[in-house]
Amino acid sequence: MEEDARTLYTPETLAALRSRERRSLRGALLLAGLTLAVCVALCFGIRTRNAPLRQGLVIACSALGSWMTVLLADRGLLPARREAAHEEGVARAAAETHTGRVARLEPRFTIPKSVTFVPVVLEEAEGEVSLKLNARFLAGFPEAGRRVRLQVRRGYITGWEVDPQ
User: Fold this and answer.
1) pTM, to two decimals
2) Interatomic CA distance for residues 73 and 94, integer angstroms
């Protein structure tokens, strides 16, 4: 089984996730600080005549900057942090090997505040076994009907080899 072999959950992918997490955190903090600085700067030089305009600008800047910071944290920081924590947990678990035919790939399932995975049903000699494949790694995974050897940790597929037959 060496036609197509692939290993997932490598130290490099974990390092990339941690790097993305750090960049997102820095970006969110920078955006929050910049928003605060602009709001403070707008408060200088207020006169009776320009107070209503400045007040509206401060409110708009504060609201827009705050929502952009929340969006960056929600779409960048938290998903990277969750993926990295998941990957660390899976990598620490003991590995087991399953050999069989991919029976089917079921619809994606998202664990709230965690990862999205695709349930994979594998037909082994002893019967069917249900495993999970992180949705990030779905591209390139063998289609249903192919014989494979899977490396599994904590129920998640961490690597595979495809039988050339």
Assistant:
1) 0.79
2) 33
**C-alpha–C-alpha distance, residues 15 and 84, integer Å:** 8
Q: Given the structure tokens 């999970």, which residue do they identify?
A: 132
Q: Does position 3 have pLDDT exceeding 60, yes or no?
A: no
Cα–Cα distance measured from residue 120 to residue 123, given in angstroms and rounded to the nearest whole number? 10
CB 115 within 8 A of CB 9: no
Say if residues 79 and 20 touch (Cβ distance below 8 Å): no
C-alpha torsion sign, points 21, 23, 26, 28: negative
Length of the chain: 165
- Strand-pair category, 127-134 with 109-110: unpaired
Report d(CA 148, CA 102) in Å as an integer. 7
Alpha carbons 162 and 155: distance in angstroms, whole number: 19
Q: Shortest CA distance to 120 belongs to which of 88, 89, 156, 149?
A: 156
Mean pLDDT, all residues of the chain: 92
160 residue type, one letter:
W
